[in-house]
Amino acid sequence: MQIIEKGMTMLRKTVGLWAAGALGMLVAGCQIDPPKPETATVSAAVKTPASKTVTNFTPALRCMDDLLLAYGKRDIVITTAGIPDSTGKVMAGTKEMLITAASKMSIKSKALTFIDYDTERADLLALFQDMQAAGAFQHKLPNYYIRGAITQLDENAIDAQQGAGIALPFLDLGVSRDQVSSVVSIDMNVGETTSRMILPGVNASNSLVITRTGKGGELGGRLGKVGFSFNMSLNKAEGLGSGVRALIELGMIELVGKLTGVPYWKCLEIEKTNPLMIEQAREWYDGMKPEERVKFVQRKLAGMNLYQGPVNGVTSRELTAAIGKFQAENGLIADGRINFDLYYALLDADQPPAPDPHAGPTAPVVAAAPKPAAGGPLSVKLDSDRGPRPTYRPKEFLQARVQLSGDGILYCYYRDNAGVIARIFPNRFSPDPFVRGGKAMSLPPEGSPFKIRFDQPGQEQIVCYASERDLPLPANLKGADLTPLKVASLEEIATAFRKSNPNVAEAKLEITVR
Known about the structure:
Blueprint: H1 2-15, H2 17-32, H3 37-43, H4 58-70, E1 76-80, H5 94-104, E2 112-114, H6 125-132, E3 144-167, E4 171-192, E5 198-223, E6 226-237, H7 240-260, H8 275-287, H9 290-303, H10 317-329, H11 340-348, E7 380-384, E8 391-392, E9 400-404, E10 408-415, E11 421-425, E12 434-435, E13 441-443, E14 458-467, H12 490-500, E15 505-513
Parallel strand pairs: 1-2, 1-3, 8-15
Antiparallel strand pairs: 3-4, 4-5, 5-6, 7-9, 9-13, 10-11, 10-12, 10-14, 14-15
Helix pairs in contact: 1-2, 4-7, 5-7, 8-11, 9-11
């Protein structure tokens, strides 16, 4: 009402009482006949039409669907708790983006089935409780789960600016141009739901540069005795959310390709001569058993109508002849033998393999997972350069060692004499929690740019937890490494780990400082 009253005063001074009376009637009319709700709805309607989301990887997702169909990959059940943002700067619905990508590459092939779980419960505990009581419900159980994080966001990583100007007695002119680039990275991995072991080699780590450009101009001068100025700017910005979607779609293509052993690089239009793709194929070839290699060659040559024999993983004269013919037609040494060059040429061929008559449910081709120790359950040993119950003096440095009986996942925590607890492994300098068995590792790990020095007398402690499978961090333990955690005691940490894995191995090192 204050704005209306000021308007009335100004009008009265300018055009007299008639205008004031007219304005008073207008105000009275507004009070008697308020705006209709439907009118307000129309005036606030969205003016920009909706558009369908299509990214640069949409054709690649369709290509993956065709590729999975051609290779007979289907009924792979997956789930995820989403791709969280470790940087705290990206707000995007990554779980829904991941589900959409999985759906787009499964329209015809039915390769991926996504099972949704309530992610408000810590980690994927709901899933693993279901796994233990599998007979209590009728829906499918996930074979794999996808985990990862937005691990990097370097804002304004590249900043380039250009500008020029000219000044004359009657005119000033200036132009400018700037380009600011930010880098965002996403890491993704696949784990087995039965063992919670992260599959080695089935991962994706990709980065994207997001650019914002701008152009501007400024003009100033005089017209007679009157000065004037004019500004103009044109800005173009690529959205961070669109960049995250592109990275997730690219990561899904890479993960599913590695999980199923199909030549996913063809959908990304990467040349087969690319060293990274050759290295990937070499890992698959080395990880196959001899009979698996023979069966792969039989199926591929059968799909090309070069081989008519059985698909049984056993070599024969007919198979040798078919191999020699394919080698001769594709510039390879025609010796009729199965080797990596033959495998890679067949893998890159456009013709799909013939169906495997003995195949059951889809079995992904992945690298072999680390095996536990043959002597029984995984165990962890923790000691120091001064024995299992060491004594140090103030200003001395800790020299501790930890060793697992077999390959596994390791987390170690330190409590000082004031009761402050922090995670010392894994950390930002040694981020991988996977540790090889039978080999002692120093704490802090060798090469770490930090050491633990004792300041004053008291009792301190190190506790390590290890498992043959992945150890999910409970919510109260997801703080940054080498910084105080919001926990009351080490027993609280032990309880949290045992809840997700009752068979977790544990070791303690009591330290006395005098």
